[in-house]
Amino acid sequence: MKITLKLFASLTDYLPPASKYTNIVELDVPDGATITQVTEPYQLPQKLVHLVLVNGHYIAPEQRAAKVLLEGDVLAIWPPIAGG
């Protein structure tokens, strides 16, 4: 099934070179894939995986290993953001 992975801010460094400037990667993942299974190959440091949304809905850290993605889902991940 096809999903879209979007990484933001410093997490774009973990994307393939061709996707770094768009922050988007279209993925073909197995049916029943979870958020954790999709992100593991990118070796994202867990301390940088702060805000996780699926189709604009927040997914709490304790739900990410069990949340099954569906065809056409958009998985978006942000690191902690600081500003002032």
Give the SSE map.
Blueprint: E1 2-7, E2 24-28, H1 35-39, E3 51-54, E4 57-58, E5 74-78
Verbal overview:
- The chain is built from 1 helix and 5 strands, in the order E-E-H-E-E-E.
- It is mainly beta and 84 residues long.
- The chain has one domain: Beta-grasp domain (Ubiquitin-like (UB roll)), CATH 3.10.20.
- A hairpin with a 2-residue loop joins strand 3 and strand 4.
- The mean pLDDT is 93.
Short description:
With 84 residues, the chain is mainly β.
Which descriptors apply to this entry?
single chain, 84 residues, mainly beta, Ubiquitin-like (UB roll), five-stranded mixed sheet
How does the major sheet shape up?
Answer: 5 strands, mixed
Based on helices, strands and strand pairing, what is the structural class?
Answer: mainly beta
**CATH domain class:** Alpha Beta
Q: In the CATH classification, which architecture applies?
A: Roll
Percent of residues in beta strands: 25-35%
Distance from first to last alpha carbon: 41 Å
**Count of individual helical segments:** 1
The CATH superfamily label reads Beta-grasp domain
Q: Radius of gyration from the CA trace?
A: 12 Å
Helix content: under 10%
Q: CATH topology, which one?
A: Ubiquitin-like (UB roll)
What's the total number of strands?
5
- Total domains: 1
Lateral arrangement of strands in the main beta sheet: 2-1-5-3-4
* Basic shape: globular
* Pattern of helices and strands: EEHEEE
Average pLDDT: 93
Low-confidence stretches: none
